[in-house]
Amino acid sequence: MKKNRSPWLHQLPQDRERHALATDLSIDVAIVGGGIAGIASAFYALKYTNSNVAIFERFKLAHGATGHNAGQITSYFECGFARLVDEFGLSKAARGQKAVEDAWHLLDEMYTDAGLDIPLSRFVGHAGISSQEQVFFHLMNNQFRREAGLAQESIRIASTVDFVSNIPDLYKGLYSLVLPEDIRNILETATDDFVAVVSYQKGCVNSALFTEEVAKYLSRVYPKRFALYEHTPIHKLVLKHDHALLDGGEHEVRAGRVVLCTNGFEHIHILNETGLDIDAKYHHLLSGKIGYMSGYLEKLDKEPIAISYFTNPSIVADNPYFYLTRRGYEYEKGVEHNLVSVGGPDVSVEETANYSLEEDFPDEMEEVIDTFVRRIYNVEPNKTIDYLFTWHGLMGYTKNGVRLIGPEPKNPVLLYNLGCNGVGILPSLHGGREIARHLGGEQVQESIFDVPERDPG
Prior knowledge:
Shape: globular
CATH topology of the domain at 121-201 and 287-397: D-Amino Acid Oxidase, Chain A, domain 2
CATH class of the domain at 121-201 and 287-397: Alpha Beta
Number of strands: 19
CATH superfamily of the domain at 121-201 and 287-397: D-Amino Acid Oxidase, subunit A, domain 2
Strand content: 25-35%
CATH architecture of the domain at 121-201 and 287-397: 2-Layer Sandwich
Order of helices and strands: HEHEEHHEHEEHEHEEEEEHEEEEHEEEH
């Protein structure tokens, strides 16, 4: 078996000094979790409030899910826009969808303020779908988007499929008919598995390197208001009516507000001294999935792209699919390749399971990914593919696939910006901006991201 080796961590500087908490501390805002959600929450809290902010990371900055993801920037919800409408109503769902799409501007803001020059690719990405049921589901999503005044996805359907005549008139203007070879060309495949393609803006970024560089910027610009403590696990939170106490092992932190930006599996215990239990609820907010990915290098002769392949014709919310990203990648200094990253297989984990980033990459997962690659994407016969990177990461999924952002109803000293749900970069940035609004005392509009009053399970 191969090691858990992420291409994103490979590009991080290895010589940065790291500091653990070495004394008791009093701080305005304590952020627990040093991934992209934590760094976005810190960035906006520092920029838009006068708070002193500290991040507490149990291991190394950006070495959790942020350093073990697919690096893909997307604005869709895994559950589909139509399901958001069903749960929250059209107006509220549309505001939530627009908030995530507008997070592209937040990404620009962070890049500009921090003066980042790390690679960021933007393009029209695609999803290949393989059944009538999936086509109709995406048409329904597009119809709701049209009603809500949102930009519509491009949906192209093969003109030869037998269900074209069954498409309801309601969906006129929401799709186009194209030749089957157009579908294959867009999806970069030779197979006839896919009957349609859905296209919308996507992108690629090394979110671990992004997090590292933003942390350097915050340390430089806010030296008296920002601190980063790595190798500092927080074991327990004690919530008072106007502050919190954090158990950092040998040292204690007193904070006016606490923001949890974790994947939910850090075994943090929450004691709410205002009387209402939070601990049990928190540990039921998220379920975990271990996602498996492999990557190999090719010539730098194709444009960046991100494509999802729904090879299973089902439309259930947890329908497994494969996803592929391709972007320029500097493996050795000064030498550029294209890195092709492919993921899809995953397994669910219980909260009490002992997941470890140190575990080897299972041979069977590499075989599943390789079988997909050779059948769908890289079909040159007898071509040797060297999977230079094989990695896995633990992701937190909420019950309904919507990120949790904002204060805990039972004690607003505690706030959340959590729930990767498989598409975490833009929602994390939106969450960071909203956290700053709450911290700044702004009146924040009710949204689909609000933390439920009680366990939604």
